[in-house]
Amino acid sequence: MHVVLLVFVYLIAVAIVATGGVLIARQRSARVRVGKGIGVDSIAEPSGSSVPPPAETALEETPVPLSSGMARTRGVVGAALARMRLRGGLDEAFWSEMEETLLLADLGLVITSELVAETRQKYRMTGLNSSVEAIELLRATMLSTMMDVDRTLNLDGDPPSVILLIGVNGAGKTTTIGKLAKYFADEGRAVVLAAGDTFRAAASDQLDTWASRAGVEIVKGAPGGDPAAVVFDAASKASAKGAQIVIADTAGRLQTSSNLMEELKKIRRVTDRAPGTLTEVLLVIDATTGQNGLVQAKSFTEAAGTTGVVLTKLDGSAKGGVAYAIEKELGIPIKFVGTGEGIADLVPFDPVTYVDEICGFGS
Ligand SMILES: Nc1nc2c(ncn2[C@@H]2O[C@H](COP(=O)(O)OP(=O)(O)OP(=O)(O)O)[C@@H](O)[C@H]2O)c(=O)[nH]1
Ligand SMILES: [Mg+2]
After folding, report:
1. How far apart are CA 3 and CA 192, in angstroms?
2. For residue 283, what are the β-bridge partners?
3. DSSP state letter for 154
4. CATH no. for residue 236?
5. pLDDT for 90-125, tens place per residue?
6. Which of 87, 153, 298, 346 could form a disulfide with 179 if both were Cys (CB 3.0 to 4.6 A apart)?
7. Number of structural domains, the chain?
8. What DSSP designation does 218 have?
9. Structural domain includes residue 142
């Protein structure tokens, strides 16, 4: 009887220890995923750095590379062009098919026609009749537009460097800010985020969570307050604290809304008067919007002087051709690409990988 009782007590003890372990593990993972909230109105101290780095952090911090992020484009466009390469000789239909295939990547009708015409002209000069040569010339033609572009993020001038993110609703501005903040923080730079989206109620809390995860500071304003004033305050705080970089969020807006585009101009003007230097105005474009991204790029650049594009959600799109269209037509460099929702899923734009995936030379 005593033995049975002892075994029973032992089993209960084992069960308690096991359940406690699971709960502790769950709490740890929740802290890592969500991060600690920052409950200070103006400027908050870094908190993410105190979180121990368990295995999940390492997983989360492995960026999805550009080639994997372009899997959909490769599947639709790259695969078709790779098949065309194997064809051998070519005829008139080959060029129409090349045009139709590139249109699937949403390069746009005009840009696609120009690109195919240019490739075809170069091809005529080879005197060959080979589909391999033709697709290789397409690749070379695309690269000749994209290779010699300066894609470095400008941080020159009096510190802090202010980086402003603009774009339509839901493009990925706030998420990109979180990723950039983490990137700079990992490099050992002091970063202050400016919660310049004072329009949407939950926007500054969302940025707060990213600040916490990246372990950087944040300056917030009153809900409905002046976004330009928030950016000014963040630049002033960064200057006072000796922080090198300010990354400013803005509310999403349609490029057709003239009032909101005027507001962007004001943010720019006020930032120019703030301490530091406005070094980058990054337009965030959702790759799934395809050709509309080109329209957005034109309008936002007229209003706010875009210095570079961040193309987000390329992982969810086969329409990444808009990156080529933007560089070819507007000459605005694509600087970064979003390849996923994780904090590390922001990679520098690499034209060789990009063109290879479109033309079917990718892995
Ligand atoms: N798959 C994928 N999702 C992304 C990427 N970038 C952002 N997202 C998602 O896109 C959604 C919108 O992102 P936000 O950062 O809130 O977009 P926003 O431009 O700040 O939106 P507003 O402030 O409402 O204008 C979120 O669900 C993000 O997780 C990316 O590169 N890949
Ligand atoms: Mg946002």
Report:
1. 64
2. 166, 309
3. P
4. 3.40.50.300
5. 999 999 999 999 999 999 999 999 999 999 999 999
6. 346
7. 1
8. E
9. no
